[in-house]
Amino acid sequence: MMVRANIPIMSINTKRKRIYFNRATICLLGEPTHLFFRLDEPNERLIIIPAAEETLDAYEIPPHFWKDNRRGCLVSRLPFFLTLMQISNWKSERIYEIEGIYQVFEETQRLIVFNLDEAIEIDNIMIDEEFTDEEEQS
Hints:
5-stranded antiparallel beta sheet, globular, mainly beta, about 140 residues, 3 helices
């Protein structure tokens, strides 16, 4: 079995309209406090870029992410989620997984690209716990 601890992975739950990024996805970007999500519709890609500070369109990484080494990052409120589903032709009530491509430019600019057309439908049981809303547990 291949170990994927350092490979960026995005899991998409179309029923709950949530996206889960494994820990490697966030850690490869350094130690960002916020993330920018850019949807490249013509090329069917989602691009993640670290952001140092909060802006209107940045997603804040929950503070508990850096305290708990076992968990990834759950994103439940992306404004373009429905567009993401439409351009990808994903079925509702499914879970998909995509391996990302990590890139570094000029030694300081990091980003991860997820090619949406490479999504693989996976078994719901495999990641059911990962899609538990962390806010509901508090």
